[in-house]
Specification:
The chain has about 260 residues and is of the alpha/beta class. The chain has one domain: Vaccinia Virus protein VP39 (Rossmann fold), CATH 3.40.50. About 25% of the residues lie in helices and about 20% in strands. An eight-stranded mixed sheet has the order 5-3-4-2-1-6-7-8, sandwiched between helices. Helix 1 runs parallel beside helix 2, helix 3 crosses helix 4 and helix 4 packs parallel to helix 5. The radius of gyration is 17 Å and the shape is globular. Bound molecules: S-adenosylmethionine. The site of S-adenosylmethionine (SAM) has 24 residues, from strand 7 and helix 6.
């Protein structure tokens, strides 16, 4: 993707938590954080100046996330906490886990919003049916509504089953969604197609869902090339190559 080409980055990356849900499902690259800095460097590169990145993160690796965000050129501009009406940890811990959190990160000096949203918001259970850590569309909608305008392009480089994409469509934004796991990529495309068939607030074309690859080529938005998990050592910019595969987003209405 060209530099300064998206208006909002909204993402929910792996937390580096080694997560496994009650059914044994896990999240790719949740067992390491070697992708963290390269991914956010790319996010900062493709984000327009004076715009926002909102990123969920895992509280227990907060130091790593904050260091990477700052090193990538983002300035923490706020923290958003969602209060869950239920406990999300399966095993007994020191605390009941009842919140999700995200940082609002500024690139440059975005203008102040007319009506700021609260930094504590209610959380709606997604059901986690399509993805083990599926976020509620309502949470993404609130963020997209607050930090972008109709027709803007929203990028989610860790898209999962496409929650951000669905929320973007619902609000008349375009989106680029990138996902590594083929099953979630397929789910995201299906969700986006379904969302697309509903009446839209404006006729903005959607942009595409890209399967993260190291050598994505032309054509459809989610073409299979080579897929990777990050392993030990500095990643060979796998995230970057996914983000930089411009030709995969050239056809707005061509899900593979
Ligand atoms: C926390 S989940 C996102 C869930 C998403 N918010 C949803 O509602 O479905 C993080 C996602 O990042 C994906 N992922 C991990 N490494 C990746 C990479 N290098 N490039 C793209 N996606 C990656 C995982 O497969 C996982 O689906």
């Amino acid at each position: 993707m060209p530099p300064a080409s998206v208006d909002l980055v909204l993402t929910d990356p792996p937390y580096g938590a080694g997560y496994r849900d009650r059914a044994g499902r896990s999240v790719a690259n949740d067992d390491n954080l070697v992708w963290l800095l390269p991914a956010f460097e790319e996010a900062a590169r493709v984000l327009k100046p004076d715009c926002f990145c909102v990123s969920f993160y895992g509280w227990h690796r907060a130091d790593k996330f904050l260091s990477a965000w700052k090193a990538a050129g983002f300035r923490p501009a706020g923290q958003i906490v969602w209060a869950k009406p239920y406990r999300s940890n399966a095993r007994r811990r020191f605390l009941e886990y009842r919140h999700e959190c995200a940082y609002l990160l500024a690139k440059g000096r975005p203008p102040l919003p007319q009506a700021p949203i609260p930094d504590v918001l209610p959380w709606e259970y997604s059901g986690n049916r399509r993805h083990p850590t599926e976020k509620p569309v309502s949470a993404m909608r609130r963020l997209i509504g607050a930090f972008s305008k109709p027709d803007d392009i929203v990028l989610d480089p860790f898209a999962g089953c496409g929650t951000t994409a669905v929320a973007a469509l619902e609000l008349g934004r375009r989106f680029v969604a990138i996902e590594l796991a083929p099953q979630y990529c397929a789910g995201a495309r299906a969700a986006a197609r379904k969302g697309r068939s509903k009446p839209q607030p404006n006729p903005t074309p959607w942009v595409g869902i890209i399967r993260a690859t190291s050598a994505a080529s032309s054509g459809s938005a989610c073409r299979r090339a080579t897929t990777h998990r990050f392993s030990a050592g500095r990643p060979t910019s796998r995230m970057s190559s996914a983000i930089t595969s411009t030709n995969t987003i050239s056809n707005p209405s061509a899900p593979a």
